[in-house]
Write a structure and sequence with these properties.
By secondary structure, the protein is mostly helical. It contains 8 helices and no strands.
Length: about 270
């Protein structure tokens, strides 16, 4: 099994980007694993680097214990992915509920973390959506809370990433979503996207079902190939070691059967 440097490079990039984002951010920001993209990148990069280190170093030095660890970790990851897929299919309502809560938590913590803010803005622009279920979900955020007691200038508004694109617009209008929560869905749809991101993401997955299935199958197939290669490498190393032990044992027997002559023996023919 050859050791490819691509996985190590990718994991190093994840770690470097995550550390840079973490250091560059201001203090007193969100630092939970599920809500901090920088921390998530660091964790994913570290895990990838550790797994690939076991596989590469074990293959290069023929260390079966490292290869077995690599094989075991990949097997556990594969089983967890299959289990997650089965559980997600059987308990779709529960998974959707948990996903909705997680997305709503991200909206509540918007503006507390620059990376999280950029991620939410990217999703809303990419899928042309706003909020989790509707644009009025932004009332959960302290800055966009639509109440008379909210002193924020963005009260009853939505982020600019919810706004529809305007033709021939050269300067980004970051105030385009102000006051849109006070409007009903039909008039608000002229300025912003009113459909929630959860519905749009599910719709995108249904429309691109073959692409999603292909990527998932490709990932699982790659993991199966790596598991097979690791198992074959371990088996080959064990076979070579057994053969070497047999050869050593045979060599010792041959040495025992050979003749031994004492020192200074007289070899002249009598």
């Amino acid at each position: 099994m050859s050791c490819q440097p691509g996985a190590q490079v990718l994991s190093a990039v994840f770690i470097a980007v995550g550390i840079y984002a973490k250091v560059a951010k201001e203090k007193d920001v969100v630092d939970t694993l599920t809500m901090d993209p920088a921390l998530l990148l660091i964790v994913i990069g570290s895990v990838m680097f550790l797994i690939t280190f076991f596989g590469c170093f074990g293959a290069l030095r023929n260390i079966t214990c490292l290869l077995k660890m690599f094989l075991g970790i990949l097997t556990v990851i594969l089983l967890l992915q299959i289990t997650a897929g089965v559980v997600g299919y059987l308990f779709t309502d529960m998974v959707m509920e948990r996903t909705e809560k997680l997305m709503m938590k991200a909206i509540i913590q918007y503006r507390e973390d620059r990376d999280l803010e950029n991620a939410i803005d990217f999703i809303q622009k990419k899928f042309q959506c706003c909020g989790v279920e509707s644009y009025k979900d932004w009332s959960r955020n302290v800055y966009f809370d639509c109440s008379d007691t909210n002193p924020s200038l963005e009260a009853c508004g939505v982020p600019f990433s919810c706004c529809t694109e305007v033709l021939n617009q050269t300067v980004l209008n970051t105030m385009c979503g102000y006051g849109t929560q006070k409007l009903e869905e039909r008039p608000a749809s002229q300025d912003i996207f009113t459909i929630g991101c959860l519905e749009k993401i599910i719709l995108w997955c249904k429309n691109h079902l073959l692409l999603v299935a292909g990527l998932t199958s490709g990932l699982l197939l790659l993991e199966v190939c790596m598991i097979s290669l690791a198992a074959a490498q371990v088996s080959r190393i064990n076979q070579v070691r057994k053969q070497k032990k047999k050869n050593d044992a045979r060599g010792r027997l041959e040495r025992k059967d050979s003749y031994w002559y004492p020192a200074f023996a007289n070899f002249d023919d009598e």
